[in-house]
Write a structure and sequence with these properties.
The protein has 450 residues and is α+β, with helices and mostly antiparallel strands. It contains 16 helices and twelve strands. Strands 1, 2, 3, 4, 5, 6, 7, 8, 9, 10, 11 and 12 form a twelve-stranded mixed sheet that branches.
């Protein structure tokens, strides 16, 4: 494969060590087809893309996910190590997290539940969908040629409703608890790196903040939304010599953030990065206190009130478990969380998220997490292509000026077709007399039509 980037070949060679040789050949065929085709990503449709390359009975390819022995976490670790080495060699690792619902009907689908659809719901109207709810931990990186950062999925966990957890015989965990587990895995993989995690209100829990606070020596910081009426206290006073009785849990009660904002006349103004890649003028009020929940102890946080002066965005309250983090960085860190929402939309549009049809436990827990990993693999592949391939906008629309995931996907398909047609002796003979312009025209058409 001379045209495939060397770093990608090394990564795929590492993946092959997690499979037996026969299973790896089938997995690689499915992986190639998932990159090349459009629309639904069912196993049968993947096999139709390359019937000559698919050996054996079609049911063997279904068993790759339902019966064969391999670890999706081992693949995720190899992918994470490669991505961090390529995009984030220095500085803190910028993690973002969210959950998304993929619709999946059927009476016997493992892990299916009725979940709120955040995409179609609003503050006045709630929409629920039957399917799987995935909790995703992603790494924000700067892709060459793109003006904004991309959120590359790294770890995925399936949220089960309480009845489904009881049925599966597992302890029920909330999305926040699942995210805590994913963060613990990530910190085990990168013990020497500082981590800044940003999540929406689903992860603005006292429990997750306490987890970040306990691991602050390992350089984990949490940034999320903050309840305006949160109970804040000072640190409990030290016990005097000879003092009897139980030690105090909290110190003096502090005004809530809402009360501080109402009583503050002079406010600081800043210019920060905003949604959509622009900037906004904002007005901020900040404070430090110990967030208290009964039975869960104290967590020291810095809270920030944000009022949009340029547009009409609603007032927000944020917090960070790193009290030394600047106000501007706290706001911009939370704003950067929006990258994962773009990732979910691009996966639905280009990688067929929600189109899989697995029903048994192993298939459900493997197929869609592999699609999340495929998004990261394509971005990694695209970053290693020659510069001239990375600067081309293949999919254009009015007002588009920067590279997006659709362009990255077409560039990767272009790279695969070029290797398949023009770099193999048994394939290149019919095309020997084609001009360079004609070759590029054929490759571009194939990449867009795959």
């Amino acid at each position: 494969m001379p045209k495939i980037p060397y770093a990608v070949r090394v990564l795929l060679d590492g993946f092959s060590k997690e499979f037996s040789p026969s299973v790896w050949q089938m997995f690689l065929s499915l992986l190639t087809a998932a990159v090349m085709i459009r629309g639904r990503r069912t196993i049968w449709r993947l096999l139709r893309f390359s019937p000559r390359a698919s050996t054996g009975h079609f049911s063997s390819y279904h068993r790759v996910f339902s019966h064969r022995r391999w670890s999706s976490y081992a693949l995720a670790k190899r992918l994470a190590l490669a991505v961090v080495a390529r995009f984030a060699q220095e500085g803190p690792l910028k993690l973002v997290g969210d959950d998304t619902v993929s619709q999946h009907r059927g009476e016997k689908v493992y892990g299916k539940g009725c979940h709120r659809d955040a995409v179609r719901s609003s503050h006045q109207h709630l929409v629920y969908r039957w399917g799987h709810k995935w909790v995703v931990l992603a790494l924000r990186v700067q892709i060459p040629g793109a003006t904004r950062t991309w959120a590359l999925p790294m770890l995925v966990a399936l949220y089960r409703t309480p009845p489904e957890s009881l049925k599966a015989g597992v302890v029920h965990k909330t999305p926040s608890e699942l995210m805590r587990g994913l963060l613990a895995v990530w910190m085990r993989w990168f013990p020497q790196r500082k981590v800044v995690f940003a999540g929406d209100s689903s992860f603005a829990t006292h429990e997750l903040a306490g987890f970040a606070s306990r691991h602050r020596r390992k350089r984990l910081a949490l940034v999320s939304k903050f309840p305006p009426t949160a109970v804040l206290h000072e640190r409990p006073p030290q016990r005097k010599p000879g003092q009897k009785g139980r030690p105090r849990v909290v110190g003096k009660r502090l005004p809530s953030p809402q009360e501080v904002v109402a009583s503050t006349g002079k406010r600081k103004r800043l210019t920060v990065k905003w949604y959509g890649g622009g900037t906004r003028r904002i007005e901020v009020v900040s404070g430090v206190g110990h967030w208290y929940r009964q039975g869960q102890g104290l967590v020291q946080v810095r809270w920030v009130y944000v009022r949009d002066l340029t547009g009409s965005h609603r007032d927000e309250y944020f917090f960070s478990t790193d009290i030394n983090m600047s106000i501007k960085r706290t706001v911009e860190t939370f704003i950067g969380r929006w990258d994962i929402e773009v990732t979910f939309e691009e996966m639905r549009e280009h990688l067929g998220l929600e189109t899989t049809r697995g029903r048994c436990r192993q298939t459900v827990l493997r197929v869609e997490p592999c699609l999340f990993g495929l998004y990261t693999l394509i971005a990694y592949w695209f970053a290693h292509l020659p510069k001239k391939n990375r600067e081309t906008i293949h999919v254009a629309w009015v007002g588009k000026t920067s590279i997006t995931f659709s362009d990255a996907l077409v560039s990767v398909r272009y790279n695969v077709w070029e290797d398949y047609l023009f770099q193999r002796p048994n394939k290149s003979r019919p095309f020997e007399k084609l001009t360079t312009h004609m070759r590029n025209t054929i490759l571009h058409a194939l990449a867009l039509a795959a």
